[in-house]
Structure formats: C-alpha cells, structure tokens
Amino acid sequence: MAEAAAAGRRTRGGGGAARRAERTAVSVETAKFIERNIPNYELLNEEALEIIERNAETVLAEIGVNVVDNPAALERWREAGAEIDGERVRIPRGLARKLCATAPSRYTQHARNPERNVEIGGKTLVTAPVYGPPFVRDMEGGRRYATMDDFRKFVKLGYMSKWLHMSGGTVCEPTDIPVNKRHLDMLYAHMTLSDKPFMGSVTEASRAQDSVDMCGILFGEQFVQDNTVMTSLINVNSPMTFDDVMMGALEVYAANNQACIISPFIVGGAMAPVSVIGTLTQVLAEVMAGVAYSQLVRPGAPVIFGAFVTSIDMNSGAPTFGTPEASHILYGAGQLARRMNLPFRSGGALCGSKLPDAQAAYESANTLNAVLLGGVNFMLHSCGWLEGGLVAGFEKFVMDADQLGVLHNLARGVQWDENGQAMDALREVGPGGHFLGCAHTQANFKDAFWRTELLDYKPFETWDEEGARDTMTLANLRMHRMLDTYQRPALDQGITDALDEFVAKKKASMPDAFM
Description:
Blueprint: H1 2-10, H2 15-24, E1 34-35, H3 46-63, E2 65-67, H4 71-80, E3 83-85, E4 88-90, H5 95-100, E5 106-109, E6 118-121, E7 124-127, E8 135-138, E9 142-145, H6 148-160, H7 182-193, H8 205-219, H9 221-226, E10 231-236, E11 241-242, H10 244-255, E12 259-267, H11 276-297, E13 303-312, E14 319-320, H12 324-339, E15 344-346, H13 358-373, E16 378-379, E17 385-386, E18 391-393, H14 394-411, H15 418-421, H16 423-429, H17 439-444, H18 460-465, H19 471-485, H20 493-508
Parallel strand pairs: 2-11, 7-16, 8-18, 10-12, 12-13, 13-15
Antiparallel strand pairs: 1-7, 2-4, 3-4, 5-6, 8-9, 13-14, 17-18
C-alpha cells in the first residue's frame, strides 16, 4: 500500500529534487501508536451491560431519533425498514445492531509518511491534539482569538511532539480566514507542515468533499478510495438528533471509504440524564443509529464508537471535567464499544481551568488515566485543551504532549523475563550495597525509566539560580525552542504545486463569508 502511494507521488514530477530533500531533511522522532499490554478496567457487570443494551434498543424503537433537513437520509432509513414519522426515525429492535455489524473492528489510517501510519482498534491507543477552540492562549499574548498563524504553530508543535501520533484537525479555529475557506488553509497546513495522519473538515458536505479531493492530490485518487487517510469527527446533536451538516459530511466520508467518529456530545444533566446508566443508554442509542447509517451509505466504511461526556456544575451550569462520573461513563462506554466490536473514542487532557495550573493538571490527569484503563483507541484532545475546550493553550499543549509519554510506558506493562527479574543485580550487590554501578543498571539505565523533556527535577539551589521557573514558564521556553528548530518535512514539489492550485481555484470560486 505504501508502495502504491509512493508510485502515485512519483508521477507528479519534481522527483529528483524531492529525493534530495528527503535525504537532507531532519528526521523528527515519533513514537509508534500505543499497544496495550495491560488489561482494560471493566466497571460494569454483565447484568448492567445487558440492561443498557436493552434500554438503548427501546429508545431507538419507541422514542426514535430525529434526522433533520435530510430527506435522502430519511429515505435510506425507510428502505432499511425503519418507521418514518416526519423527521422522526424509529428503528426496530435489532436493526441498528445488525447494520453496525459490517463496520470493521480495526483499520489503518495512512499518513503521507508510511512510518507514521496508525492502527485504530483492538488494543491500540492513538493520540490526537485539541480540536475546535476559537481562542488560543500563551504567556506573551494571553487569551485571544485564534489566527491561521496560531494554527500553523500548533501543527508544527504536533509534528515535533514525540508522543503525539496525529496532526489532528481543527486544532484551533482561525478566525482571520473566511468561514467558507478556512478549511482549505487548515488542510493545506496539515498536509504540508506535517507528515502525520490528520482529520478532515466536517462543517459542510462540500468541505468534506474538498478534503477528499485534496487527499486525492496528496496520496493519489485511487489510493484514497482503497485506503483510509482521514478520520473525521461527526458529533451527534444530543439528545438524539442528527443534523444535516454533520450527516452530510458523514455521507461524503463513508462513501469515499474514510473513517468517521460517531460521537454524542453530552453534558450530563443538560443533554442527557444525570445518572450514569441513563447517560450510557442514550450514548449507545445515538452511536448505534449513527454507525448504522454510515453502513447504509457504504457497508464496511470504517467508523469509531465515540463518547464525549462531561458532567455539569449544578450551581453555574458550566461543564466540569476530570470528575469520577465522567470516568464511570468512559469505562462503561468502552465496554459497550468492545461488545459491538468497534474502535472506541473518548477522553483527552480535558479541564475547565483557564490556565495550565494545578486544576488543569489534576483534571487532565484524571481523564488521561481513565483513557488508558478504559480501552480508548482514539483519544482526541490529547494535548492543548483549556477552559472547557474554548481555548487551545500553547504551554498546555507542550505540557500535555510530554505527559503522553507516561501513557506509553504504563501501557507496556511489566516484564518478567530474565532481565526483568534482575536476579543478577541482586546477587552482585547483596546486602548493604547500592545498585548504581552494577552491571544490570549499566545495561538498562537508558531505558529503565520514562524521562520527561519538560519537568524540572534539579536540586533547589540549581532551580533557584536558573530563575525559579514554574512549569508553565518551562513549557513556554520549550514551545519557542521547538518552533525555532522546526523544519518542514519533505514533500514532492509537484504535489505542493497541485495543492496550491486547488486551494487557489477553490477560494477564487466563491466570495468570502464569515457566517
């Protein structure tokens, strides 16, 4: 498959210059996607899971879901055997689950650099950055509306972050670009400033098609039809409503063999019941309806069981993050996804804090740990999330990206081979000695412990002499150092020229629109 992609690129010209550029380009290390060697945490017993599944079928059959402003989707459901009443779709028991059965349990998303390909499903965990904030924050500029320059900086930071597997999608919303054209600039940035996998546009069906067309330039049109090169986020308008914008994008991606995350967007107590089991019932009903519809469009289209669920502060009405209830729902949703044999998306370094402070750290760590134990396969918002998702933070991005390394090491589990048993070290040192100089330590010290590239472990005196810098300051310095040393990954000039031409023609074909 990688060979087919390479062959497609070579036909676009500029090959000699591109190969010379590849030989001289600086290689940025990216860790392979996580493969868990630890068990998942199974919160719910068989009885509870069966109750949720039975109740979700009842929701679909008796209450139904709304499919808004999409007559074609209503007709698809009618032909499949659903009962249609206006825009309400009632799905007979067992029909949605039967349709979902054609969705693959695991798929490969291809990057333009085959070494960055990711496997999504099974025991894997793939990390992707923050998605969607209209604001950004850093120490120099404070909180402000995001621009395209900010967007490009985040893409560069993501490319250079070792533990981050994907470049992402709307890492921030560049408000200085017209709404109807910014998806072109965002995709172009992901395609040219990084060689990691990325996400497509979902804000309109035509923009999803632009994403597919641009991938046809980058990978080759046939390669795109035969392989998955994008995973894109389709949010359900909870409770139980599928709008024409998201469904239009889903239809484009499913028809073109591109993956979608069917993700209820739930604030518990506002958009779902306050109880864990009630919320999980709604999540499962919404996901089954969305996944089933993707399979009506194209059986076998890759799709992910998504669950973005937070609780609510009953005093202010604001969403809360890192709470035990949210973890309970994550664990339960993971079990339901595995019973459906589907990849699972949830979590991230979520927090409600305005700054990358102690609140942000506690809340983010709670969710990151739940993600690892809960069997999540695709973690959106892995780094950079602040203020309930309204803000993408540069320092927070760097801090979170560093902590993703902890998940990699935890997921490895514990080795009990001869080296792991370390009996030779125990014999060599014996009572009263120390292990710093023994042969086992010398052979293993480089890889024995995870090492941060950010946090400060120096003695107090050294830390004080260097300016008594807190973590946000250290993250700011690291962020600037990464951007200063960034080098663009090589890309065939013929592909770059074709992308430039596509974007220019698309922009020229329509007037600017900021609504």
